[in-house]
Amino acid sequence: MKKRMLHFFGITSLILAILTLSITFTINFIPLYEWTAESLDLANRVGLSQDRLMQNYEKLIGYLNKPWVGTLNLPDFPSSESGLFHFYEVKRLFLLNYAILGISGIGAFVYLTYVQKTKQQWKLIQPFRIAIGVPFVALFFLTVNFNRFFILFHELFFNNDDWIFNAATDPIILVLPEQFFLYTFILAFGLLIAGFLGVYFWAKRSAFPQKKKSGGA
Questions:
Q1: Residue 18 near residue 101 (C-beta atoms within 8 A)
Q2: Where are the alpha helices (DSSP H) in 118-177?
Q3: For 125-169, what is each residue's pLDDT tens digit?
Q4: What is the C-alpha separation between 139 and 192, in angstroms, rounded?
Q5: DSSP 8-state class, residue 213
Q6: How far apart are CA 171 and CA 46, in angstroms?
Q7: What would the 3-class secondary structure string for 89-120 be?
Q8: For 60-74, what is each residue's pLDDT tens digit?
Q9: Could you give the CA distance from residue 87 to residue 177 in angstroms, rounded to a whole number?
Q10: Are 65 and 94 in contact, with CB atoms under 8 Å apart?
């Protein structure tokens, strides 16, 4: 019973660590936004240069990432109270993600060390074979109907409508198009799949090592 619980919490920690690491990389991958802004000519929508737009975006990311930054002040984008509150809620999700990453990362490291030492890598094969399918299903859903996926995502994580921005009061929405969020989800799910596949193939290779072929004379 104790061993079963150990494997349950260990595998859960490993899945959460890969998930939150994928999210962490994606939300901090500024080149993705820079590329999106250039390809969609977002700066021109609001009468800014590309460099100035990136300064605003980096300030937004800095606010969302840093717990000691309590106020969001974007140089070129005024914000309504509801808009500021939504970004505050997003900030809390960012920090929650980092907290889960820290805790699950430690748990995953300890568990991987344990299964490698005890040669129980085979325990990871079936759970990760199943886990790999989940982000594939999510990717299919978001590519078929991203708008619906986007709405469901916000309904799941936010209990209000503050995420529905009005461009007149929160012009930042003009440079945060839905297409950018589509790219971020695709990147995050892609990284998640890569992480799950990595663990799966590592576990399979470790549990069932191929015998070296003996060379003939």
A1: no
A2: 125-144, 146-157
A3: 999 999 999 999 988 888 889 999 999 999 999 999 999 999 999
A4: 11
A5: P
A6: 8
A7: HHHHHHHHHHHHHHHHHHHHHHHHHHHHHCCC
A8: 999 999 999 989 999
A9: 16
A10: yes
